[in-house]
Write a structure and sequence with these properties.
Blueprint lengths: L1 H55 L3 H27 L6 H25 L4 H55 L28 H8 L33
Helix pairs in contact: 1-2, 2-3, 2-4, 3-4
């Protein structure tokens, strides 16, 4: 009885442990999903606000909003492109590492633009804009270069794979149509007539020569079954016997 009680206690402890582990994993997954949703919502709200500010405030404040929006769009697109491509191409790990370093500069630049966006002095905004515009173009150009290179690499791999696949399909198609290959001359028996040539008639000179040599003329094989009674494939149209009177 004590052994049974110990076994039952161990089973209960194992079940409780598994339940706790499953609950913790579920809570973490839900938390990650909520965090992603909140981050996506904040990103959408911020992008919408920048678009509205870009058109509602002309001049230097609107240009600052436009710079932030273009920077965020480029960095986000490059990040998604590299992450998706890296799952299939391990050689992009170096590109991902470079993008992480570039992201640090991008976040710093975005913070500077955000502070300038809240600057009430328009003269200071106009004075800082040239330097921030140049930094934005440099960071954005580097991000675009990484993204385009990854896209061109994936497209090139797809074209190479399609070309190889097309060649293999052509070879397989030729193998399936093996009957279209002409029979080599060397494979024919000595003295055999070429394929497709008709045998001479009984009254022809060639037939008399064979008869004189003691060789019986070739006769067509007799088929004891009517062709219309032979089974065929389901897609073949069966021939019917000629009607008799």
């Amino acid at each position: 009885m004590e052994a049974v009680a110990v076994i039952v206690a161990l089973i209960f402890a194992v079940l409780v442990t598994l339940g706790v582990i499953a609950t913790v994993k579920t809570v973490r997954a839900v938390k990650r999903g909520v965090d992603r949703t909140v981050t996506q919502a904040r990103r959408t709200v911020e992008d919408t606000r920048l678009k509205a500010r870009q058109y509602a405030q002309p001049g230097a404040p609107g240009e600052v909003a436009q710079l932030r929006l273009s920077l965020r769009t480029s960095m986000r697109a490059t990040q998604e492109a590299l992450r998706l491509a890296a799952t299939e191409d391990a050689s992009l790990s170096e590109a991902l590492a470079l993008f992480e370093r570039l992201s640090a500069h991008g976040h710093e630049l975005d913070d500077d633009l955000k502070r300038l966006e809240n600057e009430p002095d328009k003269a200071r905004i106009a004075a800082c804009l040239p330097e921030l515009r140049e930094r934005t173009e440099r960071v954005k150009g580097s991000a675009d270069s990484l993204r385009w290179a990854a896209q061109d690499r994936a497209r090139r791999f797809a074209e190479d794979d399609l070309e190889t696949l097309s060649g293999q399909i052509q070879m397989e198609a030729g193998a399936l149509r093996h009957w279209t290959t002409d029979e080599p001359e060397a494979s024919r028996a000595p003295g055999a007539a070429p394929a497709g040539s008709a045998a001479p008639a009984e009254g022809a000179p060639g037939a008399g020569v064979r008869a004189a040599d003691g060789q019986a003329p070739e006769r067509p094989a007799i088929n004891g079954r009517k062709t219309w009674q032979q089974p065929g494939y389901s897609w073949q149209k069966s021939s019917r016997p000629e009607s008799t009177t």
